[in-house]
Amino acid sequence: MSARLPDEVGAPPVEALPELLSPPRRRGAVGGFIHRHPGIAAGGALVAVMVAIAVLAPVLGTVDPTALAPARRLRPPSALYWFGTDMLGRDVYSRVIYGARVSLVVGFAVSVLASLLGTAIGLASGFLRWLDAVLMRVMDGLMSIPSILLAIALMALTRGSVRNVVIAITIAEVPRVARLVRGVVLGLRELPYVEAAVAAGTRSPMIILRHILPNTLAPLSVQATYICASAMITEAILSFIGAGTPPIIPSWGNIMAEGRALWQVKPYLVFFPAAFLSVTVLAVNLLGDGLRDALDPRLARKL
Amino acid sequence: MTAPLLDVQDLRKEFAVRAGRFGFGRAMLAAVDGVSFTVSRGETLSLVGESGCGKSTVGRAILRLIAPTAGEIRLDGQRIDDLPEHRLRPLRRRIQVVFQDPFSSLNPRLTVGDILAEPLRNFGLVHGRAARAERLGQLADAVGVAREALGRRPHEFSGGQRQRIGIARALATEPELIVCDEAVSALDVSVKAQIINLLADLQDRLGLALLFISHDLAVVEHLTHRVAVMYLGRIVETGPRRALFAAPHHPYTRALLSSVPVPDPTATRRRIVLGGDVPSPLAPPPGCRFHTRCPFAVERCRVETPALRPVGEGHVSACHFDTEPAPG
Questions:
Q1: For residue B9, is pLDDT > 90?
Q2: A199 at interface of B, judged by CB pairs closer than 8 A
Q3: Superfamily name and number for B6-94+175-322
Q4: pLDDT tens-digit readout, A249-263
């Protein structure tokens, strides 16, 4: 005789399985977002704090960051001078807070400009095949020079100013964006929906606007955050070696440069601007990694 | 006699490929090597062959997604293979395309309504919101997609529904010819049948001509008027469906037909299994291109290229021999 099935008459009742799984946790909209995208949440929050600091610098208990006070030189951090004073008696706290403006302006300006220029070059390269070889060899040439050396060389040709720093770093970063966009465009051009649009009589400008550009935005926004972080570091390096922001404008790089000579006896002169720079760059990179994972996990290979 | 709707003569398409040990060399690969055929109004011509035989390249050349290397393509007697893009664009309205992959053939960021409206806008086919909405509704009805679908995006649909949307986009310009590039190959069997019926139905109602590119003879048998069999960039046999399926002449066609499964377990038949692989199109074999795999090949096949010659009413084959049609 065959074994009885449980639901046949006379079969022993089946015991309910014990509840092993904990009930799914309910999260609010904000809590859910933080849980799903911790990188975007943490990075975004830190960047927002830095932007707030830069914008609100005059009301954050600062004094004139360039005011000299020889009598109060090299005071250590205290209740009055939170981060101490430098060798000219300037308040380091005020200088660091105002210095955020330079870093953020350079970071954002470079990432926006490099993205726009790089996208234009990448699109031209991906669409006009006769131009491709020329443009890409120029980009290869630019990329073969380390971007910091290229920026130093470009700064050596001009006067030190925030605008020139932005231009120099942008030129150094454009090739990366151009290559990325070109690669994405070449991939998209082959897609059936783009070919169907060509067959349906859509003109090239419309193909780019409707079918190509929207699909480059995801990888581009990720790349833009990395460029922002790298531009802030490059700006600090340029200022540190005296080839960037002029000394009259406090920036994290030139505050560190000025504190360098006394670094062994007065480490706070270097520590505070360095800490702000590190935290800001970390925040932007966290944001970029979070965006990359949220937009497309497969993107990691393309960047 | 009027000119056929589509007339392709000696079409040739070469691609430059890297060759040599370090990829520095350049070699020309003839994906399509002298293909000629015609499609009449309201007719279905199927182009069948293995992967890589050049059948999709033929379709893309007709759509002018790629420029042919040589040969002539005429639409209604007018040459379209050498027209510059701005003169070609008005003619694009008359030839549309349905692709194989229903997932990549629709832009994921646009709504179905936007996708269908794009060709209408390109050719100025409707004026005003009301007329546009009406036309979009008609298109949705024609392919059996709910009108409510127009506001949704492609990812909300199944493969079969997406393929219907792709067909609606092709119908939007009221074309005379639709190139169906493996249009049902990616679909489940039941959905495949629905789409085939839809295409046949649309052809009846709208008088469409179809160029149906497929590797699947079983599918082709149900909706085609004529069949052209391609092997390694050339057409080896063309004939009306009945003649070609009942009495295939070319050994390659016979091998292809013998590989089609028959839904009858008691049927006994002789299966022709071809040995070896398709030779590289970079170095096609001399003479008859099929001789390396042909069970009947003799010395003459290795040196002399067979021309297409008539073997029946509207039936041509490129084989040197008048072999008896293989028993079905």
A1: yes
A2: yes
A3: P-loop containing nucleotide triphosphate hydrolases (3.40.50.300)
A4: 999 999 999 998 888
